[in-house]
């Protein structure tokens, strides 16, 4: 059985440098909550762009985009963030296997604290092929 993984790296602008210590504490509390439910946190957070107060969010060995969405929504509530924000991730596999690779993206409305839209490349591709009734091009053998 091959091991699959999800990787991402993104930046969440908080708007003010003085929010950074509280945001890092919010991350630690979220990690503790997950640990209490016997789940491990699957991303790390570091301060970056200290002048504007931004967080760099990076997947661990295998990231969990749903955890990032939950954390970012907490930040939005806590710091009054508004506007659209999103991130993308890749999905891979240690050993090539059918349908093991892909990617996705999610767009959030920070003020409304809701997911506006998301796309999953694997699902999009399979749905698109199923919807289109045009047969795939036949393989043509070269003349020998």
Structure, described:
- The chain has a four-stranded antiparallel beta sheet with strand order 1-5-6-7. Strands 2-4-3 form a three-stranded antiparallel beta sheet, covered by helices on one side.
- The protein contains three helices and seven strands.
- 17% of the residues are buried.
- 30% of the residues lie in helices and 32% in strands.
- It has 144 residues and is α+β, with helices and mostly antiparallel strands.
- It has one domain (4-131).
- The termini are far apart.
- Keywords: Plasmid.
Protein traits:
3-stranded antiparallel β-sheet; alpha+beta; 3 helices; 4-stranded antiparallel β-sheet; plasmid; single chain; 144 residues; 30% helix; elongated; 7 strands
Taking pLDDT < 50 over at least 5 consecutive residues as the criterion, the unreliable ranges are none
Number of strands: 7
Distance between the termini: 40 Å
- Overall morphology: elongated
- The helix content is 25-40%
The major β-sheet equals: 4 strands, antiparallel
Rg: 19 Å
Determine the structural class based on helices, strands and strand pairing: alpha+beta
What is the residue-mean pLDDT, rounded to a whole number? 89
* Number of helices, where a helix is a run of at least 4 consecutive DSSP H or I residues: 3
Topology:
Elements: E1 4-7, E2 9-13, H1 20-36, E3 43-48, E4 54-59, H2 65-79, E5 84-93, E6 102-109, E7 114-120, H3 121-131
Antiparallel strand pairs: 1-5, 2-4, 3-4, 5-6, 6-7
What is shown here, in short?
The protein has helices spanning 20-36, 65-79, 121-131, and strands at residues 4-7, 9-13, 43-48, 54-59, 84-93, 102-109, 114-120. The protein is α+β, with helices and mostly antiparallel strands and 144 residues long.
């Amino acid at each position: 059985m091959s091991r699959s993984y999800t990787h991402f790296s993104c930046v969440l602008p908080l708007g003010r440098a003085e929010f950074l210590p509280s945001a890092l504490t919010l991350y630690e509390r979220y990690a503790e909550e997950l640990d209490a439910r016997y789940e491990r946190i699957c991303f790390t957070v570091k301060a970056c762009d200290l002048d504007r107060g931004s967080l760099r969010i990076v997947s661990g060995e295998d990231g969990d985009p749903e955890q990032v969405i939950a954390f970012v929504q907490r930040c939005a509530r806590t710091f009054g963030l508004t506007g659209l924000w999103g991130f993308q991730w890749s999905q891979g596999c240690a050993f090539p296997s059918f349908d093991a690779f892909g990617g996705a993206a999610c767009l959030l409305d920070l003020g409304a604290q809701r997911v506006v839209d998301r796309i999953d490349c694997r699902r999009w591709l399979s749905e698109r092929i199923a919807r289109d009734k045009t047969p795939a091009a036949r393989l043509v053998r070269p003349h020998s």
